[in-house]
Amino acid sequence: MLYETDANNNIAAEYTWDALGRPVTMTKGGVTYYYHVNGHGDIVALTDASGNVVAQYQYDAWGNILSKAGALATANPYRYAGYYYDEETGLYYLMARYYDANVGRFITRDTFHGFENEPQSLNQYAYTKNNPVMYVDPNGNYAWIVLSFLSGGANATWQMVWDFYKKYKFNRSAWINKFDWKKFGKLFVTGGLIGIYGRGITSYMTKSQIAKAGQFAWDVTYAAKEYILLQVAGGDPITWSGLVDAIWNKAKGYLDFLKKLK
Does the keyword rRNA-binding apply (predicted)? Predict the structure, then answer.
């Protein structure tokens, strides 16, 4: 959310965000306030430009507000894990669904039905696999996993692709014979997994999952190579968005794999 309006369509509050989707500032009544976030992503305080605390919060592991203080403690809508908090209902709005911290559950079912061999995933109301200390669920469903993977992978490889493109342009032979496709695939999958889980990803992966990631890398490489060579053959520019779109179908095919890692 970038701004809120009143009944007369006047802007009542404006917000800015960082690259990770965390709130940075709230401007209200012509005054800008700054969010303070802990390692879990919880909003623990809000200060003005002089460093005066205008809102302060404490939560339990599930997001129940244990205490709040300050002139803007109620007016500020962003709280636990950076989620939007509805004061009237006491629920957190997680885009796809509402989350009730009192019971540690969503109030509606997930569209993902779960895995037969993973009992916790079969509870479609469960929040973060019953592990709110380690995980958050910014969108209320699993769709964000693929988007995070694509963004992380493309960010990890784009400079490599762009540098090669600037040097060889539409030289098809160079793309086929000189571009390091194996390195590209490894970088893309590694960047994608880091985009989802952070740099400790390998500590959570089993041998079979690592093998699956290797196959994923090969398929991602094939999709990217196909896109780039078609662009080169047609004399069309290679773009970041085009690269992501080309890999999207392959990534969708691995959605279950990514979910199981979660």
Answer: no
